[in-house]
Design brief:
By secondary structure, this protein is mainly alpha-helical. 56% of the residues lie in helices and 4% in strands. It binds zinc ion (ZN) (2 copies).
Protein backbone atom coordinates (compact mmCIF):
# COMPACT_ATOMS: atom_id res chain seq x y z
CA UNK A 1 0.00 0.00 0.00
CA UNK A 2 1.47 3.31 -1.07
CA UNK A 3 -1.03 5.95 0.00
CA UNK A 4 0.70 9.30 0.12
CA UNK A 5 -2.27 11.28 1.41
CA UNK A 6 -4.12 10.58 4.63
CA UNK A 7 -7.59 9.23 3.94
CA UNK A 8 -10.27 11.84 3.41
CA UNK A 9 -13.13 11.68 5.89
CA UNK A 10 -15.92 13.16 3.78
CA UNK A 11 -18.97 10.86 4.12
CA UNK A 12 -19.99 11.29 0.45
CA UNK A 13 -17.11 9.25 -0.98
CA UNK A 14 -17.02 6.75 1.91
CA UNK A 15 -16.48 3.28 0.47
CA UNK A 16 -18.63 0.36 1.67
CA UNK A 17 -17.12 -1.35 4.69
CA UNK A 18 -17.22 -4.81 6.17
CA UNK A 19 -20.07 -5.18 8.70
CA UNK A 20 -17.71 -6.49 11.42
CA UNK A 21 -16.92 -3.75 13.96
CA UNK A 22 -13.39 -2.34 13.60
CA UNK A 23 -12.79 -4.05 10.26
CA UNK A 24 -11.56 -1.64 7.61
CA UNK A 25 -11.73 -4.02 4.68
CA UNK A 26 -14.17 -3.84 1.79
CA UNK A 27 -17.11 -6.27 1.83
CA UNK A 28 -17.41 -9.08 -0.71
CA UNK A 29 -19.50 -8.42 -3.81
CA UNK A 30 -22.41 -10.36 -2.35
CA UNK A 31 -22.50 -10.15 1.42
CA UNK A 32 -22.03 -7.76 4.30
CA UNK A 33 -18.61 -8.79 5.49
CA UNK A 34 -15.18 -9.08 3.91
CA UNK A 35 -13.83 -12.50 2.94
CA UNK A 36 -11.51 -12.70 5.93
CA UNK A 37 -14.28 -12.01 8.44
CA UNK A 38 -16.60 -14.48 6.68
CA UNK A 39 -13.91 -17.18 6.91
CA UNK A 40 -13.32 -16.40 10.58
CA UNK A 41 -17.02 -16.60 11.34
CA UNK A 42 -17.32 -19.90 9.48
CA UNK A 43 -14.36 -21.36 11.33
CA UNK A 44 -15.80 -20.24 14.65
CA UNK A 45 -19.12 -21.94 13.90
CA UNK A 46 -17.52 -25.14 12.66
CA UNK A 47 -14.79 -25.74 15.22
CA UNK A 48 -15.54 -29.39 15.96
CA UNK A 49 -15.76 -30.21 12.25
CA UNK A 50 -12.43 -28.48 11.66
CA UNK A 51 -10.82 -30.21 14.62
CA UNK A 52 -11.99 -33.58 13.32
CA UNK A 53 -10.56 -32.81 9.89
CA UNK A 54 -7.30 -31.63 11.40
CA UNK A 55 -6.88 -34.86 13.42
CA UNK A 56 -7.11 -37.03 10.33
CA UNK A 57 -4.69 -34.96 8.25
CA UNK A 58 -1.30 -36.44 7.53
CA UNK A 59 1.72 -34.75 6.05
CA UNK A 60 4.76 -35.87 4.14
CA UNK A 61 8.03 -34.81 5.81
CA UNK A 62 8.36 -32.06 3.17
CA UNK A 63 4.86 -30.73 3.87
CA UNK A 64 5.50 -30.85 7.62
CA UNK A 65 8.74 -28.90 7.21
CA UNK A 66 7.00 -26.33 5.03
CA UNK A 67 4.16 -25.90 7.54
CA UNK A 68 6.61 -25.46 10.37
CA UNK A 69 8.68 -22.86 8.50
CA UNK A 70 5.54 -21.06 7.39
CA UNK A 71 4.11 -20.86 10.92
CA UNK A 72 7.36 -19.50 12.35
CA UNK A 73 7.82 -17.04 9.53
CA UNK A 74 4.30 -15.58 9.55
CA UNK A 75 4.31 -15.21 13.32
CA UNK A 76 7.56 -13.28 13.06
CA UNK A 77 6.21 -11.18 10.18
CA UNK A 78 3.13 -10.22 12.21
CA UNK A 79 4.91 -9.59 15.50
CA UNK A 80 7.66 -7.45 14.03
CA UNK A 81 5.32 -5.82 11.51
CA UNK A 82 7.69 -6.61 8.67
CA UNK A 83 6.73 -5.65 5.14
CA UNK A 84 6.56 -7.87 2.11
CA UNK A 85 9.02 -7.20 -0.69
CA UNK A 86 8.08 -7.07 -4.39
CA UNK A 87 8.50 -10.23 -6.49
CA UNK A 88 12.17 -11.00 -7.01
CA UNK A 89 11.50 -11.73 -10.69
CA UNK A 90 8.90 -9.26 -11.92
CA UNK A 91 8.39 -6.70 -9.14
CA UNK A 92 4.71 -7.43 -8.57
CA UNK A 93 3.46 -6.36 -5.15
CA UNK A 94 1.14 -9.34 -4.60
CA UNK A 95 3.67 -11.79 -3.20
CA UNK A 96 4.07 -15.07 -1.32
CA UNK A 97 7.17 -16.30 0.49
CA UNK A 98 9.50 -18.98 -0.81
CA UNK A 99 12.01 -20.83 1.35
CA UNK A 100 15.29 -21.84 -0.24
CA UNK A 101 16.12 -23.68 2.99
CA UNK A 102 13.29 -24.85 5.25
CA UNK A 103 15.63 -25.09 8.22
CA UNK A 104 15.94 -21.27 8.01
CA UNK A 105 12.27 -20.23 8.38
CA UNK A 106 13.00 -16.51 8.62
CA UNK A 107 14.99 -16.34 5.41
CA UNK A 108 12.60 -16.08 2.51
CA UNK A 109 12.56 -14.86 -1.06
CA UNK A 110 9.42 -13.04 -2.13
CA UNK A 111 7.80 -14.11 -5.38
CA UNK A 112 4.44 -13.53 -7.01
CA UNK A 113 2.43 -16.77 -7.28
CA UNK A 114 3.46 -17.35 -10.89
CA UNK A 115 7.16 -16.99 -10.21
CA UNK A 116 7.01 -19.07 -7.04
CA UNK A 117 5.32 -21.84 -9.00
CA UNK A 118 8.07 -21.57 -11.63
CA UNK A 119 10.75 -21.72 -8.96
CA UNK A 120 9.15 -24.77 -7.30
CA UNK A 121 8.91 -26.52 -10.66
CA UNK A 122 12.55 -25.77 -11.38
CA UNK A 123 13.57 -27.18 -7.97
CA UNK A 124 11.44 -30.30 -8.50
CA UNK A 125 13.10 -30.92 -11.88
CA UNK A 126 16.53 -30.46 -10.34
CA UNK A 127 15.66 -32.87 -7.53
CA UNK A 128 14.45 -35.45 -10.04
CA UNK A 129 17.72 -35.19 -11.99
CA UNK A 130 19.70 -35.62 -8.77
CA UNK A 131 17.62 -38.64 -7.79
CA UNK A 132 18.47 -40.29 -11.13
CA UNK A 133 22.19 -39.76 -10.55
CA UNK A 134 21.86 -41.15 -7.03
CA UNK A 135 20.07 -44.25 -8.31
CA UNK A 136 22.82 -44.88 -10.86
CA UNK A 137 25.52 -44.30 -8.27
CA UNK A 138 23.82 -46.74 -5.95
CA UNK A 139 23.73 -49.41 -8.63
CA UNK A 140 27.41 -48.74 -9.29
CA UNK A 141 28.13 -49.12 -5.59
CA UNK A 142 26.05 -52.26 -5.40
CA UNK A 143 27.98 -53.62 -8.38
CA UNK A 144 31.30 -52.84 -6.70
CA UNK A 145 30.13 -54.55 -3.52
CA UNK A 146 28.38 -57.61 -4.97
CA UNK A 147 30.12 -58.40 -8.24
CA UNK A 148 33.16 -60.08 -6.66
CA UNK A 149 30.85 -62.41 -4.73
CA UNK A 150 28.83 -63.36 -7.75
CA UNK A 151 29.13 -67.00 -8.91
CA UNK A 152 31.73 -67.29 -11.71
CA UNK A 153 29.20 -68.75 -14.13
CA UNK A 154 26.86 -65.78 -13.58
CA UNK A 155 29.78 -63.38 -14.09
CA UNK A 156 30.67 -65.17 -17.32
CA UNK A 157 27.07 -65.07 -18.48
CA UNK A 158 26.76 -61.32 -17.89
CA UNK A 159 30.11 -60.65 -19.58
CA UNK A 160 28.96 -62.69 -22.54
CA UNK A 161 25.75 -60.70 -22.62
CA UNK A 162 27.67 -57.42 -22.80
CA UNK A 163 30.05 -58.73 -25.45
CA UNK A 164 27.23 -60.13 -27.54
CA UNK A 165 25.01 -57.04 -27.38
CA UNK A 166 27.68 -54.37 -27.70
CA UNK A 167 27.82 -52.70 -31.09
CA UNK A 168 31.38 -51.58 -30.60
CA UNK A 169 34.24 -53.99 -31.19
CA UNK A 170 36.40 -51.73 -29.06
CA UNK A 171 34.12 -52.37 -26.09
CA UNK A 172 34.19 -56.12 -26.63
CA UNK A 173 37.99 -56.02 -26.83
CA UNK A 174 38.49 -53.94 -23.67
CA UNK A 175 36.94 -55.49 -20.56
CA UNK A 176 38.72 -52.81 -18.50
CA UNK A 177 37.28 -49.82 -20.40
CA UNK A 178 34.74 -47.53 -18.69
CA UNK A 179 32.16 -48.22 -21.38
CA UNK A 180 32.49 -51.98 -20.90
CA UNK A 181 32.14 -51.52 -17.16
CA UNK A 182 29.11 -49.27 -17.66
CA UNK A 183 27.40 -51.93 -19.76
CA UNK A 184 28.38 -54.64 -17.33
CA UNK A 185 26.86 -52.61 -14.47
CA UNK A 186 23.67 -52.25 -16.52
CA UNK A 187 23.59 -56.00 -17.21
CA UNK A 188 24.18 -56.59 -13.49
CA UNK A 189 21.27 -54.25 -12.72
CA UNK A 190 18.98 -56.23 -15.03
CA UNK A 191 20.18 -59.46 -13.40
CA UNK A 192 19.40 -58.07 -9.90
CA UNK A 193 15.96 -56.90 -11.06
CA UNK A 194 15.19 -60.34 -12.52
CA UNK A 195 16.19 -61.98 -9.23
CA UNK A 196 13.94 -59.64 -7.26
CA UNK A 197 11.04 -60.19 -9.66
CA UNK A 198 11.19 -64.00 -9.36
CA UNK A 199 9.87 -65.48 -6.10
CA UNK A 200 12.83 -67.15 -4.40
CA UNK A 201 11.26 -70.61 -4.15
CA UNK A 202 14.52 -72.28 -5.20
CA UNK A 203 16.30 -70.54 -2.30
ZN1 LIG B 1 -14.04 -7.77 7.75
ZN1 LIG C 1 6.78 -12.40 -10.35
Amino acid sequence: MTTTKSSTKSPTDAKPRCATPNCERAPRKRGRTCGRCATRAWRKNNRSELAARERTRTFTPEQAALRRASAIFFTDLRRRKLTRQPCEECGRADVVPHWRDLTQPLQVVWYCRVHRANERERLAEAAKATAKVVAWKTLGERFAAEWPQLAPDVQARLRAEVERSSTFAIVRANPESPLYRQQLVAAFGRYCASLEATPSSTG
